[in-house]
Specification:
It is a single chain. With about 375 residues, the protein is of the alpha/beta class. It is built from 8 helices and 15 strands. Pfam families: AAA_15, DUF3696.
């Protein structure tokens, strides 16, 4: 498990900024304060490692890192993502592994990185250097009647969840889920096949939904239909059920199939979910993290955080295994600086520090309502 990520000269992080990591890591804060930059840093490190692994038996020691169109990255020009014109490189350090990304004059949409480490040794490490690396973009695929089947063998849902239907159809009845990840909140739900465990967890997050998938190989498409047993209808198009199911399904499938010792990056798991569903997806992600997967979550939802805290208390997770990082802007004179503050938890999962702006909007709104009412408005 990785312990520490340091970012320098990348987007809003002009100075070296270190983020402590645990089994499950939550990035919280307002918009445009650096949360997504953390996710992108992991992706750039992963890409540098993959290039080094590809060329490990060659004389190539420096690699071109793509800034766009890989793992969903859309970073644009290399000069635009440096936070300082004085510094030439972007520095990303994960534990003892440090990567310096340099601009390439003739190819501004790429950067050059060297890998000074033994790739064979790195590959034995868990986390970002393991075979399993899973990333789900905030802009996941919405309701679709079908998805195209990738011509390559796939073992993940895809950055946008675009492989989810096919993967579930192929593995649903033949793949067994590790006992630590199996749904354990109902003694009657004990079948460990992937399709049943997906059904159990989906019912926990969005109650009363049944899923059916099928491949039409001659057309190279996977189909999905949904049904609510409470209604007297047959299986229907996903378009009849809104965005929540389509957005959360890849998260559930990814968590259940991810390799032990791997890493999952998830942006906005709460998207299109009711607050109860947001809490429950947080609970699910915490359970996955307890089973030996390092989870990185970028979220705006206090409900996701509370679901994680509930799971941690219920499953006796140590406070140090949960890393809550609050991203904010701090004014210092005429200047504004990006800050990352770790929010500590005690043994009872109480938040030990509560900086200004941290999940306090409800309190602010209630205060405003009281003030307006006192003025007779």
């Amino acid at each position: 498990m990785h312990k520490e990520l340091t970012i320098e000269n990348f987007k809003c992080f002009s100075e070296p900024t270190t983020i402590t990591l645990g089994k499950i890591n939550i990035c919280l804060g307002c918009n445009s304060v650096g949360k997504s930059s953390v996710i992108q840093s992991f992706i750039l490190i992963r890409q540098a490692f993959e290039k080094a692994r590809l060329f490990k038996d060659t004389q190539v020691k420096k690699y071109h890192i793509q800034l766009n169109d890989i793992y969903g990255l859309q970073l644009g020009d290399s000069e635009h993502i440096k936070s300082s014109k004085v510094k030439d490189d972007i520095t990303l350090k994960l534990d003892e592994y440090e990567y310096k990304l340099m601009s390439i004059a003739e190819s501004p949409m790429e950067m050059e990185a060297a890998n000074e480490y033994d790739v064979s040794v790195q590959s034995l490490r868990e986390g970002i250097f393991s075979d399993g690396f899973y990333y789900l973009n905030a802009e996941r695929t919405g309701p679709r009647n079908y998805q195209m089947i990738d011509s390559k063998t796939i073992n993940h849902c895809g950055v946008y969840g675009e492989n989810t239907m096919h993967l579930l159809n192929v593995l649903g009845t033949v793949s067994r889920v590790d006992s630590e990840r199996c749904y354990n909140l109902d003694e009657g739900k004990t079948v460990s096949t992937l399709n049943k465990q997906v059904e159990y967890w989906m019912d926990y997050i969005i109650p009363g939904i049944e899923i059916r998938t099928d491949d039409v190989l001659e057309l190279r498409v996977s189909k999905m239909t949904l049904r609510q047993p409470a209604l007297d209808t047959d299986f229907l198009s996903p378009y009849n059920f809104g965005f929540g199911i389509s957005y959360v399904l890849p998260i559930i499938v990814t968590g259940l199939i991810a390799e032990r010792g791997s890493m999952i990056l998830v942006e906005n798991p709460e998207a299109h979910l009711h607050p109860k569903g947001q809490s429950h997806i947080g609970y699910f992600l915490a359970v996955m993290a307890c089973s030996g997967i390092q989870v990185i979550v970028e979220t705006h939802s206090e409900h996701v955080l509370n679901g994680i805290r509930i799971a941690a208390l219920k499953n006796k997770v140590a406070p140090d295994d949960i890393s809550i990082n609050f991203f904010s802007l701090k004014k210092e004179g005429k200047n504004t600086r990006h800050m990352v503050e770790k929010i500590n938890l005690d043994e009872r999962m109480n938040l030990e520090n509560w900086p200004e702006g941290f999940l306090d909007q409800e309190e602010e709104d209630l205060r405003t309502l009281r003030l307006l009412r006192s003025k007779g408005i």
